[in-house]
TrEMBL record, chain A:
N-terminal signal peptide: 1-19
Source species: Cereibacter johrii
Record keywords: Signal
The protein, known as: Uncharacterized protein
From TrEMBL, chain B:
A Pfam family hit: Sulf_transp
Major localization class: membrane
PANTHER family for the chain: INNER MEMBRANE PROTEIN YEDE, SULPHUR TRANSPORT DOMAIN-CONTAINING PROTEIN
Protein family: Belongs to the TsuA/YedE (TC 9.B.102) family.
Subcellular location as annotated: Cell inner membrane
TM ranges: 20-38, 44-65, 77-97, 109-131, 143-163, 175-200, 212-234, 240-262, 274-295, 307-324, 336-357
Mode of membrane association: Multi-pass membrane protein
Keyword annotations from UniProtKB, A to Z: Cell inner membrane, Cell membrane, Membrane, Transmembrane, Transmembrane helix, Transport
Descriptive protein name: Sulphur transport domain-containing protein
Length: 55, 375
């Protein structure tokens, strides 16, 4: 077996995650999206990061 | 990992194929920008850049540590330190000047943090892939990484689920090296590690090939873009845990028993689309970038190595532990080592020491688990 089917399975798995997400999550609203750059936006960073030390 | 090449060798994509790849990447970025917003399209593009730089220029974390420990070849480690230093020169002053808009990868040092980093170091050598490495290797058709990846996500979810319990073993106050003094200490620390690596390295081993200079500069540029666009540094592990958490919720799991996943910020992330999650977008971009580079080069024709059953079991267990331990360690090689140190967090340095020690053990365990192949 070559790497091709392995890569294909990985791509399909990522597509599956996105499909599941589309089914269970609120649809994104581009009209309420934050400015393209956080720097200079005046807004606090809202994303989550792996350095988050719990609650 | 090195695979046996198929008899015909790699056949790079033709002009039509390359145009198709570029068009697909552009389409995906524009589609996310239209559906979710320009920031999120840009973050996918940054993720694609990470994947292209890591796979295209063969820049990694686990491999260079292995080369340093086994063969005393420091070039790859020096390239990592260079990239981190380049980011720190810009990021630490930027964070000091814009504390309301930008956040560093800052976390406290604790017992479970140190233990998590040690276990991560073991496992990253077992599968020869760290946080970014597992994503990129999976995208380039590496079967061990592809098997480990879903378990990495589950482990990250479970680690976050229990993180407050583990934190109860004790944590020191948060220490951040900030401002000019913090930058000076960070750069001095990076220089000291580089000197140690050169000192212990084989003669002439410190010469960086051109690709590593380019890769270090590219990764530094992309990491800074990530910070400026997202307001937070480059990370990997949180996004993977979020994917598994969404899967668990979809299957009816109740996450209210977890202080982490039931916190308002996480409930919101679970409700919102992955197309608005920073680390999910850069993770997807990294996988897609690695797939794109592999298709561009024609590198998907090489054979998957035959491994014994115990090697596949080791890959599954390692994947699970990679995810779990990296949440306890407040990040992987990207979120803690690369982004932690480059944004002045002391935990990044402690993570490096603990994970490097774990890597020394992981390298010794690898042959016994059949991961060197059926020889």
């Amino acid at each position: 077996m070559t790497r091709k089917p392995v890569a294909l399975v990985v791509v399909l798995a990522v597509a599956g995650v996105l499909a599941l997400d589309t089914a269970v999550s609120a649809p994104p609203n581009p009209y309420q999206a934050p400015p393209i750059l956080a720097l200079g936006s005046g807004l606090a960073p809202g994303g989550a990061h792996c350095s988050a030390a719990g609650s | 990992m090195t695979d046996t090449m198929a008899a015909a060798g790699p056949v790079p994509a033709g002009p039509g194929g390359k145009s198709l790849l570029l068009g697909a990447a552009l389409f995906a970025v524009c589609a996310v920008a239209v559906m979710a917003g320009a920031r999120y399209g840009l973050l996918l593009a940054i993720g694609l850049g990470f994947g292209i730089a890591l796979e295209g220029l063969r820049f990694g974390f686990a491999g260079p540590w292995r080369a340093m420990i086994l063969r005393r070849e420091p070039a790859g480690l020096l390239a990592q330190l260079l990239a981190i230093g380049l980011v720190a020169i810009v990021a630490i002053p930027l964070l000091a000047a814009h504390p309301a808009e930008l956040a560093g990868a800052h976390a406290p040092v604790g017992w479970s943090m140190v233990g998590g980093a040690f276990v991560f170091g073991i496992c990253m050598q077992l599968v020869l892939g760290c946080g970014s490495g597992t994503l990129v290797n999976a995208g380039s058709g590496n079967a061990v990484a592809a098997v480990a990846l879903p378990f990495f996500a589950v482990g990250s979810f479970l680690g976050a689920y229990n993180i407050d319990w583990w934190n109860g073993f004790g944590m020191a106050p948060l220490v951040v090296l900030s401002g000019t003094g913090g930058l000076a200490v960070t750069l001095a620390g990076l220089a000291a590690v580089a000197l140690l690596a050169v000192w212990f390295g084989v003669p002439g081993g410190a010469r960086l090939p051109r690709r590593l200079w380019i890769a270090a500069a590219a990764l530094a540029g992309l990491a800074l873009l990530n910070l400026v666009v997202a307001g937070q540094p480059w990370g990997v592990v949180y996004g993977l845990g979020l994917w598994a958490a969404k899967g668990a919720v979809a299957m009816g799991a109740d996450l209210s028993g977890s202080a982490f996943w039931s916190a308002p910020a996480q409930v919101e992330r679970l409700r919102e689309s992955l197309l608005t999650d920073v680390t999910s977008l850069t993770n997807i971009g990294m996988i897609a970038g690695a797939v794109g580079v592999s298709l561009w080069r024609g590198g998907l024709g090489s054979a998957v190595p035959g491994l014994p059953a115990k090697a596949w079991i080791a890959a599954i267990v390692s994947g699970l532990l990679l995810g779990y331990s990296s949440r306890l360690a407040f990040g992987c090689n990207v979120g803690a080592f690369f982004s932690g140190i480059s944004t002045g967090s002391l935990h990044g340095w402690v993570w490096f020491v603990a994970a490097f020690a774990g890597s020394s053990l992981g390298i010794r365990l690898r042959p016994g688990l059949g991961l060197e192949g059926p020889r």
